Amino acid sequence: MPVALLSSRALIAVTGPDARPFLHNLLTQDVETIAPGELRFGALLSPPGRLLFDLFLLGTEDGVLLDVAADRRDALIQRLSMYRLRAKVEITADDRPVHAGWPVPEEGFIDDPRTPALGGRLYGEAAVDANEDDYNRHRLAVGVPDPTNDAPQDKTYPIEADFDLLNGIDFRKGCFIGQETTSRMKRRGTIKNRMMPLSFGGAPFEFGAEVLNGELRAGQVLSGQDGVVMALLRVDRVDGDLTVDGRPVRLHRPAWMGEEAPSSNA
Asked: Which residue intervals define the domain CAF17 C-terminal in the entry (predicted)?
C-alpha cells in the first residue's frame, strides 16, 4: 500500500465540554454523534452557503480533531475563535502530520469517509514510500475533487464540489451556517454545475481554461496532472464532443456519483 505525507494538510484540535455542540452548529456535518476514532467529511460555509473551508473531523475522547488545508489553518482557527463566544472550548494547532494510504488502508489508517476507493488517512508518524503527487494522481483517477485547490474560497457551492455525493453534508442534522441555501439547492434540484474529471492525452491545461461543447461553453478546467484534470462543468452541456484549447477531452463519471450526474458520450 503506498503511503504519502500530505504536507498540504494540517490539524486543529477542538477540545472542551462544548466542543461537539459548538462545531455541530457551524459545520455541514453531524458532529455530536461522531464516535472516538470515527472520521467524517464536511465543511464550514459562508452565510450565503459558499465553501470557505473543507475539512475532515476525527472524533476524540475530549472533542474533535480537524484535518484542514495547511495554508488555511490559521484563518480557520481565527474564524472558529470568532464564533466561540462563551462556549467552553479550546482551539489549538496540532502538529502531528497527515498521511494518506491507498487503495486499501492498512492497520492504523481510518477509511476515507468520502468513498472507500480513496483509501484511508492516518494522523501521526508513518513510513512513507510515495509523495503527494502520487496521492493526487490516485484521487483524480477516483474522480474526487480537492476543494482547497478546485473551489475558489467563497465562490463555490458545496454541492458543485460534490459534497452531497461524498458524504460531506448531513441534510437531517438541522441548522448550520449556509444551511438554507444548501438545502434549497438539493431539495429543488437546482444544481447547474458539478465538478467532474476529464481525461485526455498530454500535458494538463491551465487553471481556468475553457471547456467547450461544440461552440458552447461547457465549463472550466480546475487542477490536474498529465492526462487528467478536474473541471467544473455545466450538467446540461456535458453530452457531446468536448474540447479544451482545441484538444479533445473525455468526461468520466465516477462510480460514486451513481445516477446523480449526467454522463457523456464523448
From this structure: 193-258
How many residues does this entry show for the chain? 266
| 190 or 59, greater pLDDT | 59
| Beta strands at 242-244 and 210-213: parallel, antiparallel or unpaired | antiparallel
Rounded to the nearest 5°, which phi and psi values hold at 191?
A: -105, 100
What's the start-to-end Cα distance of the chain, in Å? Answer: 33
Pairwise CA distance, residues 97 & 147, whole Å? 20
> Domain end: 124, 150, 176, which one?
150
Query: Tell me: the pLDDT tens digits for 161-175?
Result: 999 999 999 999 989
CB 116 within 8 A of CB 96: no
For every residue of 106-148, which 3-state class applies, written as one string?
CCCCEECCCCHHHCEEEECCCCCCECHHHHHHHHHHHCCCCHH
* 145 shares a domain with 21: yes
CA 157, 159, 163, 164 torsion: positive or negative? positive
Which residues, in sequence order, are bridge partners of residue 228? 199, 225
How much is the CA Rg of the chain, to the nearest whole Å? 19
In a domain, 67, yes or no: yes
Cβ-count burial of 259 within 10 angstroms (0-12 exposed, 13-18 middle, 19+ buried)?
Answer: exposed
Cβ within 8 Å of residue 221, ≥6 positions away: 198, 204, 205, 206, 207, 208, 209, 210, 211, 229, 230, 231, 244
Q: What is the dihedral of CA 100, 102, 108, 111, to 10 degrees?
A: 90
133 plus 248 within the same structural domain: no
The pLDDT tens digits of the residues spanning 114-129 come to 999 999 999 999 999 9
Domain hosting residue 223, numbered range = 192-257
